[in-house]
Amino acid sequence: MRESNFAFLVVIWFLLLPLSPIFVLQALYTRGKAIKSPDPSPPHSGVHGVSQSPFHLIGFGDSVIAGTGLSKSEQSITSKIGKQVHKKTGHSVKWSSYGVNGHKLKDLLARVNSIPGNGGNLIVVSVGVNDVTRLTSLKAWRRDLRVLINKLRGRFDRLLFLGLPPMEAFPILPFPLRWFLGLRASMLNFWLAKETEIFPDVFHFEYHGRPSNGDMAEDGYHPSEAACEDFAKIIVDYLKFD
Questions:
Q1: pLDDT digits over 180-225, tens only?
Q2: Choosing a second label site near 77 at 20 to 30 A (CA), which of 18, 44, 147, 235?
């Protein structure tokens, strides 16, 4: 149920809207039984390797960047990407994570000017799952994506947006709620791909496949350390670091 046919996704979405009361009840039930995973304790930064001219890496976004469900920030996707860049290039990597659990795209816009990074080498952005669950409109999603991209371009050599995950495969979500949210995630992912492909220095990494139990943290909602490590290897290969 990915975004290969956007018009078809929109039609299915509107056909499902009459079932919204069922989805709301399932969402409330799921929220009540969900494990409340804490964020890792500080520090939310570190260094891989030693050199005089380190590679600068920033993670910015939601709970994926915050490392929710993990015990240490060193286990998060930002740190894992930094480790893989160090292995691939031999350069030391200074990484920092600026993630807030629960933040939507509009929340990232509100704090984008507070993150460092003028002259940074790479920023990795994770956003969208909270826009799915809180039903951000497609119009607002596209508009705010453009604003965020324009605010970040020029401050970093490259921007990488993590694609929205296949929420229809999240083990904690009951059927048909998981299918409904997966559909909405595909719709937002479609426009994320469209808005990022315009620029040669902006990339969209899309997750393919279905997550296994080992890919999820204990809460069944966030990526595990093993998943972060696997994603980091794929991402660094995708960005073609020499």
A1: 999 999 999 999 999 999 999 999 998 776 666 667 777 778 899 9
A2: 147
Lookup: tokens for 28: 């409330």
- CA 57 – CA 44 distance, rounded (Å): 12
Using CA atoms, how far apart are residues 191 and 58, in angstroms rounded to an integer? 23
Reported in sequence order, the residue ranges of 7-53 that DSSP labels E, i.e. its strands, are 45-48
**DSSP 8-state assignment for residue 240:** T
Kindly state the tokens that stand for 92.
């030391």
Helix (H) or strand (E) holding 121: strand 120-126
Q: What is the pLDDT of residues 8-44, one digit of tens each?
A: 888 888 888 888 888 888 888 887 776 777 788 888 9
Local structure of residue 72 (DSSP, 8 states): B
Give the list of residues 6+ apart from residue 117 with CB closer than 8 angstroms, or none.
Answer: 56, 58, 123, 155, 156
Strand order in the sheet with 202-205: 45-48, 93-99, 55-61, 120-126, 156-162, 202-205
E-state strands within 165-213: 202-205
Say which DSSP state 105 is in.
H
Closest CA to 124 of 56, 44, 191, 42: 56
Separation CA 58–CA 124 (nearest Å)? 6
3-state secondary structure of 157: strand
Kindly report, residue by residue over 128-150, the tens digit of the pLDDT.
999 999 999 999 999 999 999 99
Neighbours of 74 (CB within 10 A): 20
How is residue 114 annotated by DSSP?
A: G
